Amino acid sequence: MEILIADDEKFIREELKNTIERLSPGNSYYLARSFDTALEEMKSHNIDIAFLDIRMPGKTGLDLARAIKIIKPDINIIIVTAYADYALEALRLYVSGYILKPFRDRDIEEALNNLRRPLGDTNTLASKPICAQCFGNFELFFNNKPISFSRQKEKELLAYLICLNGSAASRGEICAYLFEGEDSEKKNNEYLKKIIYTLRKDLSRLGIEGLLIHSRNSYSINTEMIECDYFDHLSNRSQKRDQDILSSGFMNQYSWAEMYRCTL
């Protein structure tokens, strides 16, 4: 593995390097004490995993994580910090781990064994180009940039379908949740048609029209195209981080999501 360690304290860099090498020997290491040095190492080497401190001179480790993901979107980033209050912001960057100092061998070992993108999986980015953030406010990203929709209801429709985790929803079911309180069934169906029409156009513009699946009178999403914190939670791949995630809420902007919050 090619591993970047960015921390402004030399003894932490060396201790982390020695710990990783003890647990998983035979790696190449690149040590950086600042934002600029870390970016230079990223540009010069094919880094697999970046271990980043939060508080460094100048820009923060979260700033560094964002810059690194521009250079290599599918990289595994593990935050190693003495501060717990940056956890939610880090999770929104889809990091592979959040470790508190002083770290233990088992903290590093668990992070290496539960990488968001397992090493050698060269198709991860190609097969899952979309990131969905469900905890906190719902957001959708394509190539690390928020997706812009022509109608806000398009985004809400995708949020509901993501909650179904690949299961299909009928037009009537979708209307009942998205247009709660509206009396006119005919009006709701016509509005839903417009939403789906503009949603398809917006997805096609980005080249991800395969996200929305239409089958007879129902709709679902292609879960194979999405990297999602909710899916991770359901499959228990993020057990260590669940308490930090759950405390942020779940699709906070949608009232119908309350039924899902009660089951988390």
Question: What fold name goes in the CATH topology slot of the largest domain?
Answer: Arc Repressor Mutant, subunit A
- End-to-end Cα distance, whole Å, is 35 Å
Q: Briefly, what CATH class of the largest domain?
A: Mainly Alpha
Identify the strand order in the major beta sheet.
2-1-3-4-5
Per CATH, the architecture of the largest domain is Orthogonal Bundle
Q: What's the shape? A: elongated
Structural class: alpha/beta
Radius of gyration using CA atoms only: 21 Å
Number of helices: 12
- How does the major sheet shape up? 5 strands, parallel
Give start-end ranges of low-pLDDT stretches. 121-127
In total, how many domains does the architecture comprise? 2
Helix content: 40-55%
Q: Percent of residues in beta strands?
A: 15-25%
Arithmetic mean pLDDT: 86
Oligomeric state of the chains? single chain
Q: What would CATH call the homologous superfamily of the largest domain?
A: Winged helix-like DNA-binding domain superfamily/Winged helix DNA-binding domain
Describe this structure in words.
Helix 2 (35-44) runs parallel beside helix 3. Mean pLDDT is 86; it is low at 121-127. The strands form 3 sheets. This protein has a 5-stranded parallel sheet, sandwiched between helices. The protein has a 4-stranded mixed sheet with strand order 8-7-6-12. It folds into 2 domains: 2-113, 3-Layer(aba) Sandwich (Rossmann fold), CATH 3.40.50.2300; 129-261, Winged helix-like DNA-binding domain superfamily/Winged helix DNA-binding domain (Arc Repressor Mutant, subunit A). The chain contains 12 helices and 12 strands. With 264 residues, it is α/β, with parallel strands linked by helices. Strand 4 (76-81), helix 4 and strand 5 (97-100) form a beta-alpha-beta unit. The chain has helices spanning 10-23, 35-44, 61-71, 87-91, 105-113, 124-127, 152-163, 171-178, 185-206, 229-234, 242-246, 258-261, and strands at residues 2-6, 28-32, 49-52, 76-81, 97-100, 130-133, 139-142, 145-146, 169-170, 212-215, 218-221, 226-228. Helices cover 42% and strands 18% of the residues.
